[in-house]
Design a protein that fits this description.
Order of helices and strands: EEHEEHEEHEEEHEEHEEEHEHHHEEEEE
Largest sheet: 6 strands, antiparallel, barrel
Oligomer: single chain
Radius of gyration: 21 Å
Structural class: alpha+beta
Strand order of the largest sheet: 1-16-19-18-17-20
């Protein structure tokens, strides 16, 4: 089946659920809110979260055109504090955080000594000496254990794990700024990739708000104490009623990020230090990748030194790049492990799909794949079954 390569899918589902071992799924502070909204709940990374409320398609399109509210409390929440914290964070990640002034947010990767991605993270600079970061759900302990030994020996910088007790609500979509202004006042919306403490408000809620998200839309992520989360959820849903707001589950969150070409930890990259098996439809260690291979330029500042830089550059010599694919003929959507060929010949293998789904916005199948020497606009072929391409 022919597909066209693009730099990212929209600019040019099956949700992978990879759970850690646990005694039982954790219910977030918003669990009752989800039941009230009629959610279908699933176990995701050890958390009981909504996969959908009405349908993945309707939730996806509502977020693209109006607004969607997500519970992302399974994500972690770190605070880094101390003199020189921006310079220190720059030395251990791919982004030059020292260039980000207070009130700004950015995106970065953490690499091991061989240049392989351990995790990615959105960070927010509160002050010169205080930065917040959001590690992925299953990587909180891994990242804490990786970063703690890298802290200065003089204890001038500390890492505080605030994941437990913190709820994270993501309000995404074109109407998000208007809805936030109703809840937190006209100064409530911080601006895209900007951040600040939540202004005084009628709800009496304190916390942190930043203009970030995982959908590619304008929006915010809000960090509050667990006890305040249910009331905040209801207030946002009520304020957003006239704007067409809907609650959104993990299913649409996945298709939204896929359309924008955002990496998913454990799906599009997998650190070998986790000792987790590569999915059976992929070659061994196929998901072991560096930042240049992941093809996410906004996560890399090339004018500073950082852990894993030499290894990252060495890995990139082979010119394998993560690329967006959009179907140009009818047929099934690409899925994890599907082979990508440069022609209809069996000996033309150039890569494998890591993420794929039907695109509600485009009405066709889309996917992301690591490809050998990809060229934007080039037609490639995806083998969706042993006998069909």
């Amino acid at each position: 089946m022919p597909f066209e390569i693009s730099s990212r899918v929209l600019d040019g589902p099956v949700l992978a659920v990879r759970c850690m071992a646990h005694a039982g799924p954790v219910r977030t502070a918003l669990y009752q809110n989800h039941l009230e909204e009629g959610a279908t709940m699933v176990d995701f990374h050890g958390f009981e979260l909504p996969i959908q409320y009405s349908s993945i398609r309707s939730e996806h399109l509502a977020c693209r055109t109006n607004a969607g509210l997500f519970d992302v409390s399974h994500m972690g929440f770190f605070t880094f504090e101390g003199k020189g914290v921006r310079e220190w964070l720059s030395s251990v990640s791919t982004q030059d955080v020292s260039k980000f002034a207070p009130g700004r947010c950015g995106y970065t990767h953490f690499l091991d000594n061989d240049g392989r991605i351990i995790d990615d993270m959105i960070f927010a600079v509160e002050t010169d000496d205080r930065i917040h970061g959001v590690p992925n759900a299953s990587m909180v302990e891994v990242m804490r254990n990786w970063l703690n030994p890298l802290l200065p020996d003089d204890a001038s910088i500390s890492l505080i794990d605030r994941s437990r007790g913190t709820s994270i609500l993501a309000l995404q979509g074109p109407s998000a700024p208007s809805i936030i202004s109703i809840i937190f006042g006209r100064d409530g919306y911080p601006g895209r990739f900007k951040c600040k403490n939540i202004p005084m408000n009628d709800l009496g809620i304190e916390g942190w708000i930043q203009g970030t998200g995982y959908t590619g839309e304008v929006g915010v992520e809000i960090f509050v104490d667990d006890g305040d989360a249910p009331d905040l959820w209801r207030a946002i849903m009520e304020a957003g009623r006239d704007f067409g707001i809907v609650p959104v589950g993990l299913g649409a969150r996945d298709t939204l990020r896929l359309e924008k070409g955002y990496l998913l930890s454990g799906q599009d990259f997998l650190w070998p230090g986790l000792d987790e098996p590569t999915p059976e439809d992929l070659p061994e260690n196929f998901l072991t990748r560096g930042t240049l291979e992941s093809n996410v330029p906004f996560g890399l500042s090339s004018d500073h030194d950082f852990i894993g830089r030499a290894g990252m550059e060495k890995r990139a010599i082979q010119n394998v790049r993560w690329s967006g694919l959009r179907c140009i003929s009818r047929g099934p959507s690409p899925r994890l492990g599907h082979q990508v060929h440069s022609s209809e010949n069996d000996d033309s293998l150039i890569g494998y799909i890591t993420s794929g789904a039907p695109s509600p916005s485009l009405g066709v199948g889309i996917g992301m794949a690591y490809l050998d020497n990809p060229e934007t606009g080039r037609v490639v072929y995806i083998q969706t079954s042993p006998r069909r391409r």
